Amino acid sequence: MASARTRIWSISAAALVLGLSACSSGAPSSSEQPADGGVDPIEIVSQPETVGEPISLDLPLDNSGAFAFDQWPSACAFADETTLSAIFPQSDEIAQSGTDRSLSILQVGAAGTREVTVPEADCTTKVGFPVDELRASDQSVVFLLTANVEAAGDAEFVERNATPKSGDEVQVGDATCVVAPSGLRYDCATPQIAFSVTLDARPYGQYFGESESSYVVDGEEQVYSDDVDAFLTMAQEKILLPVVTANVNRLA
Fold it and tell me: Do the Cβ atoms of 125 and 199 come closer than 8 Å?
């Protein structure tokens, strides 16, 4: 349904130290927040005009069949600043934190395992907006993405190391993906890589004591109140799926 309410009222919040590295998207500074504390509805563009650079899979192989472990694509590339800034044109900060992962690899032709480290195999990305409570440094969760690179290498290595997932199987470009029952996680695989992206999205009105949260989705205003399921469906279809689609199309 449509609503005449096009602004929300902000209150101060204590900052949460997330250990995220901030990337400026070139949007207006938070100092440009309207003097009355209001902010326009959050705009979402589900077909972004620009996306991130190609994600290269032209990488050397380890003798296990994996790509050289220190050269796997970073999980942060699967929730990249360029794509998210295009989906959220009002965002002024994309903050990311990559985490290394230790793996135990079976030795080929030898007993035992060897320990390896994959840099930035996991990544958390938070989208911030130029208003108190909605900044990337605030406690509030508006849009938070978690990306994971589970396996990367030749087809045998990926098939052997990508664990089965529960959910509905769908085809996204050249990738086979499993959508979690919540709808807010996609686990996708091609012959050379298995990755996942999870979205945590919450109506922002709760952070201002408001019963309604207003968005402009592909040019159409949408207001969400008690129907959280409708909001999450929108988030899956208009945010998460476009991010996953862009990722699959960027694999090269």
Answer: no
